TrEMBL record:
Signal peptide: none annotated. Pathway: Secondary metabolite biosynthesis. InterPro entries: Cyt_P450 (IPR001128), Cyt_P450_E_grp-I (IPR002401), Cyt_P450_sf (IPR036396), Cytochrome_P450_monoxygenase (IPR050121). Belongs to the cytochrome P450 family. This is Cytochrome P450 family monooxygenase.
Length: 200
């Protein structure tokens, strides 16, 4: 359990930072999220909020917390994959940031942060298959559900209690991702300006 909690801190915090950066650039989206958050009391029903869920999914798609997902070794005899023969013993992995950018039919304007793509019913199942920030199957990250839960709590609390904007020192260049050890997409410091919301 300690391993799950420790492993999730950096990846979850970097994802939250990027989502908050994108939201700070889009006050209209923040207002929609704030209105949606007012429809539930407390935190017990955050998982029912469709726009909040779509925003987190889009953050995980656009800047996934892990650059390279789990590797697999091709079994004895090799295998055919997408028209190519891959010899046995070859180590395969996927690059999480590019996997959701290879299908313009499913992800138009893939370089734009757009949570609404997760609210459209058309092709939603196909989109979900390509969203693999925590890997899939028996080797799925055991902390994936915890990470999403934390994102809902933290992002929800920040939107409920604050208005926020991008600080002058936070720029597209400072927020450009880079891979550390091939496993994490990290970001420089994300400075935002927070203003407490007036209580109704």
């Amino acid at each position: 359990m300690a391993g799950q909690l420790l492993a999730a801190t950096e990846t979850t915090s970097s994802t939250i930072s990027f989502i908050m950066y994108e939201l700070a650039k889009n006050p209209g989206l923040v207002q929609q999220l704030h209105s949606e958050l007012q429809t539930v009391a407390g935190n017990n029903e955050l998982d029912t909020l469709k726009l909040l869920d779509a925003t987190i999914k889009e953050g995980l798609r656009f800047r996934p917390p892990v650059a390279l997902t789990g590797s697999r070794t091709v079994p004895k005899g090799g295998m055919e994959m997408m028209g190519y023969f891959v010899p046995e013993g070859t180590v395969l992995t996927t690059q999480a940031m590019s996997i959701c950018r290879q299908r313009p039919d499913l992800f138009p304007n893939a370089d734009v942060f757009d949570p609404s793509r997760w609210l459209e019913s058309e092709c939603l199942g196909e989109r979900r298959k390509l969203l693999v920030p925590f890997v899939v199957g028996t080797r799925r990250c055991p902390g994936g559900n915890l990470a999403v839960y934390q994102m809902r709590l933290i992002i929800g609390a920040l939107i409920r209690n604050f208005k926020f904007a991008v600080a002058p020192e936070t720029t597209p260049k400072s927020m450009r991702p880079f891979e550390a050890n091939g496993f994490r997409s990290r970001y420089d410091r994300c400075n935002l300006i927070f203003t407490p919301r007036e209580k109704a």
